[in-house]
Design a protein that fits this description.
alpha/beta, TIM Barrel, four-stranded parallel beta sheet, two-stranded parallel ribbon, 8 helices, 45% helix
Length: 177
């Protein structure tokens, strides 16, 4: 895993971002997700967030993130929202929830809009990850299918490591195939 997103729905998310940055150093990028306001965006960046993710098309956050030298991924669901996010300067477009649309939607969306750098999230699993990458996505966002509540409750870090390795292997296989 090269990037870890701590969502604002996580208890004490701002503190967790700072702690994760201290613990991981340069071994992984630590970012913030589920950002809905400018205030949250600023606070997360000050805490050490290295990238910003929104589930919605909140275009005013682009300038905040870029002024701090941070990448930003704006959320979208429709072609219009995705293009608006791109025109606002988003580095990536988060299609969410991707499982309701599927890889075919991404491929169809990119046909007339090939310049969009789409990162699907929501419903990405080991078995469908490759189809999204083959549809032209530079990356995917994986949440509860990787970090389940059971893993967290049981502090099953070896289990999490094994799940992460399986996702990485699936991504490598898709890119080589």
């Amino acid at each position: 895993m090269h990037a870890i997103e701590i969502t604002m729905t996580t208890p004490n998310a701002i503190k967790a971002i700072g702690t994760a940055r201290e613990m991981l150093g340069s071994r992984a990028l630590v970012g913030v997700g589920t950002v809905l306001t400018a205030e949250t965006c600023h606070a997360a960046i000050i805490a050490g967030a290295e990238f910003v993710v929104t589930p919605i098309c909140r275009t005013e956050l682009v300038d905040i993130a870029h002024a701090a030298g941070r990448a930003i991924m704006l959320g979208a669901y429709t072609p219009t929202e995705a293009q608006i996010a791109h025109e606002a300067g988003a580095d990536f477009i988060k299609i969410f929830p991707a499982d309701t649309l599927g890889p075919g939607y991404i491929k169809g969306l990119r046909a007339p809009l090939p310049h969009l750098r789409i990162v699907p999230t929501g419903g990405i699993e080991e078995h469908n990850l490759g189809a999204y990458l083959k549809a032209g996505c530079p990356a995917v966002g994986v949440g509860s299918s990787l970090v389940s509540s059971k893993i967290l409750q049981e502090s099953d870090w070896p289990g999490l490591t094994a799940r992460a390795a399986a996702f990485v292997e699936a991504a490598h296989a898709a890119r080589q195939g």
